[in-house]
Amino acid sequence: FIYPRTKERREEERWKISPIYVYKPRQVPSETAEETRRRYLRRFWPTTAAIARAAQLAEVGRPKEAEIVLRQILQGSPSNHSARYQLGLLMEGREDWDGAKAEYAKIPLGAPEYWQAMSQSAMIEMSLENVEAADRAFKDAIAAFLKLPRQDPRPLATLYVRWAIGDLERQAWESAEQKLRQATVLDPNFSVAFRELGLVQLNVSKLAESRSSLQKALELDREDSLSHFYLASVLARLEEWESARAEFVETLKIDPE
Predict the structure, then answer these.
(1) What is the rounded distance in angstroms from the CA atom of residue 112 to the CA atom of residue 145?
(2) ∠ Cα 185 187 188 (to 5°)
(3) How far apart are CA 214 and CA 197, in angstroms?
(4) pLDDT per residue rounded down to tens, the chain (257 residues)
(5) How many Å apart are CA 64 and CA 87, to the nearest integer?
(6) 129-154 b/e with 16+ CB inside 10 Å = b?
(7) What is residue 154's DSSP assignment?
(8) Spatial separation of the C-alpha atoms in residues 220 and 218, rounded to whole Å
(9) How far apart are CA 202 and CA 170, in angstroms?
(10) Spatial contact of 163 and 143, defined as CB atoms under 8 Å apart
(11) Which of 91, 112, 160, 187 lies 20 to 30 Å from 72, alpha-carbon distance?
(12) Chain center to CA of 203
């Protein structure tokens, strides 16, 4: 393999080595050249390892190389939904919202990655303030997740928390509280759900309930600076100044920023 001269081209091509470049596939009479190429890609390309490698490349700031790897996989296997989901995440990372949604939309209902794709689509719609589209996507994600044979309730609880955050941002307090309560029922050990529930209750002046929710969040995660900060705000509203000061100090110890 001959490296291109420029550094940029070298980085683009480094992970482009695949059977289509290394091997000269023998075409059988009954298939087209495209079918031959895909057959060899499926046979020789280590798909699981390649997807993991693409994720690593994206994490260390090498998105172009990650995209090359993922598109290579999809050329050989267009129905590889895991690779398509990772490609959607990659596009989200560079704020190509339409591209990300287009990739997620290609993942069919029934695929294990469908609920994750719908969840990410919902987050995109939420950031674009498309409330109705976000709600539909969250409902689709939840319905798809419930059809899977899973035991861990955390992903489903996380879906409700994400959905509630959209309500919280537009100050739809009642709707947000309902979703967050559902999250705490699904997963009683999910500190983030209790924290966000406490924040909603603080904003509607349910101070006693907010205090209880935030204390529960801190029982589950003592190192969550936001829970300490929100609890300090509640205590200040209750004029419990010394306790509020102690929580603010704890917040700064955990997160000086």
Answers:
(1) 8
(2) 75
(3) 8
(4) 333 344 444 444 433 333 333 334 455 556 666 665 555 555 444 567 778 878 888 888 888 888 888 888 888 788 888 889 989 998 988 889 999 999 999 999 888 889 999 999 999 998 888 999 999 999 999 999 998 887 788 999 999 999 999 898 889 999 999 999 999 999 999 999 999 999 999 999 999 999 999 999 999 999 999 999 999 999 999 999 999 999 999 999 998 88
(5) 11
(6) eeeebbbebbebbbebbeeeeeeeee
(7) H
(8) 5
(9) 15
(10) no
(11) 112
(12) 27
Q: Look at the block and give the residue holding tokens 């509607």.
A: 204
Whole-model pTM above 0.70?
Answer: yes
The Cα 206–Cα 196 span in angstroms is: 13
Name the one residue in this structure whose structure tokens are 């704890």.
250
CA dist 129 → 118, 201, 247 (Å): 16, 23, 34
Cα–Cα distance measured from residue 191 to residue 248, given in angstroms and rounded to the nearest whole number: 19
**Are the CB atoms for 119 and 138 separated by under 8 Å?**
yes
| Tokens coding 238 | 């209750």
The angle, 0 to 180 degrees and rounded to 10, between the axes of the packed helices 173-186 and 154-169 is 170
Question: What tokens appear for 11 in the block?
Answer: 């980085």
SS3 percent helix, strand, coil of the chain, rounded to 5, is 75, 0, 25
CA dihedral 80, 56, 112, 48 (to 10 degrees): 50
